[in-house]
Amino acid sequence: MPIEEQVIWECFVMRRDRDLERLWQKQQAGDSLAGKFFDGLGEWRAKCRKGSDKAPQCLTCEHAFCDPAQPPLTFVVTHTEDPRVNQIILTGVCWRCAEKSDTQLRKHSIALLAKYIEIRTLGECDPPTQITH
Description:
It is a single chain. The protein is of the alpha+beta class. It has one domain. It is 41% helix and 14% strand. Strands 1-2-3 form a 3-stranded antiparallel beta sheet, with helices on both faces. It is globular, with a radius of gyration of 14 Å.
């Protein structure tokens, strides 16, 4: 059984206008999840430079994020506290889809994670594009 199936995954919606300052303060205070978020944001922005065919896509639509200088205002953050999995998944949400509620965005993210785990169980090495953002 892949390790991804053995851990408890959690997700939350990070909206820049509501949550970014709090996450920054937590990171400055040494909070590991906030630190992972900002490290992941750097990696996410680097993926934006790879061109539109490999750029991160919105969680719920086909919008591609191609400009690292303009990251989305909303991310769904999927993570685990399990030390065996040092992974955080940041999935951008375009401004149109960000109008959905936090609950709707979390449900969509959880469904994609379940699909990713199922694909890993079947033996594919690369996760679907949408879940790797």
